[in-house]
Amino acid sequence: MSDRPSSRIGAAAGLAFVLLAFVGNAIATSGSTVDEHSSGAELLRDLQAHHGAAFHVGAVVELLAFLALLAFVAYVAALVRRAEGDGGWLWLTALGGGVLTIAIKLGSAAPMLAAVWRVDDLDATTARTLVDLNSFAFFISFATLAMFVGCASAVALRTALLPRWLAAGGVVVAVAQVATMTIGLTSAPILPYLLTAIWIAAVSVVLTRRAGSRRTAAASRAAAAAA
User: Fold this and answer.
1) Which pLDDT does position 93 carry in this prediction?
2) pLDDT at 217 over 50
3) Cβ-Cβ contacts under 8 Å for 16 (sequence gap 6 or more)
4) Which of 6, 57, 160, 226 is the most buried (most CB within 10 A)?
C-alpha cells in the first residue's frame, strides 16, 4: 500500500461519501413526508412545497458525495488488484460495480431535477413517473453496489487486505442486499443498504489509518537514514 498523501485521500473518500450522502439527502428531503405509497397528487404537492434552496443545496452535497465515492472505488479497486495478483478479475468486477453504481445514481438525479425545474408545469401522473424513475434507479443500484462490496470483500478474505471480520461482514451485507431485492421496491432492502454504507465507512477508516501509519513509518526510516 502506497505511503503517498494521495493514498490517504483515496482511503478517506469512502467516509466522506457516507457523510456527504446522508447529509445531502437530509437537506434535500427536509420536511418531506411522502414515500413509495404516496399518490401522484401527494408527490406533486410535496415537490411544489420543497423545491427551494434546501433541495438545491442538498443535491449539490449529494453530487459531491458520489464524486468522493468514485475516488474511493478507484482506490479500493487498485488495492484489490494488487492483492489479487496477475490474472485476477474480481478487482475489475469490483471497479465495474462501483462505477455502475455512481453512473446509475447520477443518472437518476436527472428525473428529479427535471421535476423540480418544471414543477409548475407538472401534472400528478408526470410527477409520479419522474419520482418512480428516481426510486427504481436507486433500487437497481443496490445490486451494483453489492457487486463492488462483495468482490472486494471476497478478495480481502483470501488476502488479509482487510481485517477478517470486516471482509466477512462485506460478503454478508452484499448477499443480503441482493437477496432483499427479490421482495421488490419496499423498505426491506434499505437496512442492508444502510449496513453497506456503514461497511464503506469502516473500511475507509481502516484504510486511512493504514495509509497514515505507513507514511509515518516511511518518514521515520527516511529521517533515520539521513541521520
Assistant:
1) 97
2) no
3) 65, 68, 72, 204
4) 57
Distances (CA, A) of 46 to 61, 115, 208: 21, 11, 40
At 57, is the secondary structure helix, strand, or coil? helix
CA angle centred on 45, ends 39 and 33, rounded to 5°: 70
Any idea what DSSP says for residue 46?
Answer: H
Mean pLDDT of the chain: 87
User: Minimal CA–CA distance to 193: which of 212, 213, 179?
Assistant: 179
C-alpha dihedral, 197 to 13 to 24 to 109, nearest 10°: -90
CA distance 165 to 72: 20
pLDDT at residue 82 is higher than 80:
yes
- The one-letter amino acid at 160: A
Quick one: cell of 10?
A: 483515496
In whole angstroms, what is the distance from residue 69 CA to residue 156 CA?
19
Which cell goes with 32?
Answer: 418531506
C-alpha cell at 67: 464524486
- Measured from the Cβ of residue 171, the count of other Cβ atoms closer than 10 Å reads 18
CB contact at 8 A, 150 and 125 = no
Q: Is the dihedral of CA 75, 81, 84, 89 positive or negative?
A: positive
